[in-house]
Amino acid sequence: MPSRHPRRVSEHADCRPGPHAVGRAGRPAGQSPAALRLADGRVPRREERTERHDSPGPRADPRPPAEVTGVTALRDSRHRSLSDSSVAAVSDHRLWRWRLATTVLWLACGTLLCGCAGYRFGTQGLYPDYVRTVHVPVFQSESFRRDLGERLTEAVIKEIELKTPYKVVARERAETVLSGRIVDDTKQVIVENFTDDPRDLDIGMRVLVNWTNRAGQPVQPERALNLPAPLWQVSATSHLTPEVGQSLVTAQQAAIVRLAEEIVSTMEAAW
Fold first, then answer.
1. More confident site: 41 or 85
2. Above 90 in pLDDT, residue 32?
3. What is the CATH number of the domain that holds 147?
């Protein structure tokens, strides 16, 4: 009896595909997509899209390697040029600020020097600048105590050398002469004990001073006024306390030093 399904039986009888059989996708039966790519060099659209979706990593640059290297080098050179230009701009700005500060400082120094050209600093600015040398003869003394004039002359010379710009020289080379005379030497008792012995005393001296040039004219004309003589006197005092070991000589020396300071202060220029 003939079979009712001969076609189905034939298919089941031989299920192996032949060498020229064609599958559903239009490729020979029994061949994989990879084998198909190797065969004709073409990939179906669906498989290509799947492979692109599944491929890991960054997308490859379609440009040639030489072109990619040149673009990268150009980009790096641009970055370097921008950084170099920014550094140069900062350096120029700092250099400009330094030059401006230096210029302002030099201008300030020049203005200060020009404005203070007529000023003198220190104690030398207190005395007349048209005098350079002075002669100091031994001071005369009207006191009965010995060597007061010599001691006062020595103290005045030391004070002139210490505080003034003048040089003490002999009379033949001196431009001015500073002379004086001790007119008074006093000793006043302040405190006595119960036996009337002096325990506290004041020692005082009074001197007349004259500072003239070679012609006998006063060195400072503004002081050459017709005033009474007592106004031109210089005086000084010292304290004597025998209980602490002081003597009359030490008290006199203290008064002489103070008197020399006052005499030299009279040589200062008027304001």
1. 85
2. no
3. 3.30.160.150
Write down the mean pLDDT value for the chain: 73
Among 94-108, 127-141, 151-165, the minimum mean pLDDT is found in: 94-108
| pLDDT tens digits, one per residue of 108-151 | 877 777 665 555 555 556 788 888 999 999 999 998 888 999 99
Dihedral sign (CA 65, 69, 70, 74): positive
- Residue 1 maps to a domain: no
Rg of the chain in Å (alpha carbons): 59
Q: Read off the pLDDT of residues 65-83 as tens digits, 9 standing for 90 and up.
A: 544 455 565 555 655 565 6
Q: Has residue 22 been placed in a domain? A: no
Query: Is the pLDDT at 152 greater than 90, yes or no?
Result: yes
User: Per the domain annotation, does 88 fall within a domain?
Assistant: no
Q: What is the DSSP code string of the chain?
A: ---S-HHHHHHHH--S--TT-B-TTSSBTT--HHHHHHHHS---HHHHHHHHHH--SPPPP-S-HHHHHHHHHHHHHHHHHHHHHHHHHHHHHHHHHHHHHHHHHHHHHHHHHHHTTT---SGGGGS-TT--EEE-PPPEE-SSSTTHHHHHHHHHHHHHHHHSS-EE--GGG-SEEEEEEEEEEEEEEEEE-TT--EEEEEEEEEEEEEEEETTS-BSSGGG-----GGGGEEEEEEEE-GGGT--HHHHHHHHHHHHHHHHHHTTSPP-
Instruction: Give the range of the structural domain holding residue 187, as residue numbers without chain letter.
Output: 126-265
Domain count along the chain: 1
Q: Does residue 270 form part of some domain?
A: no
Q: Please tell me the distance from the alpha carbon of residue 49 to that of residue 47, in angstroms, as a whole number.
A: 5
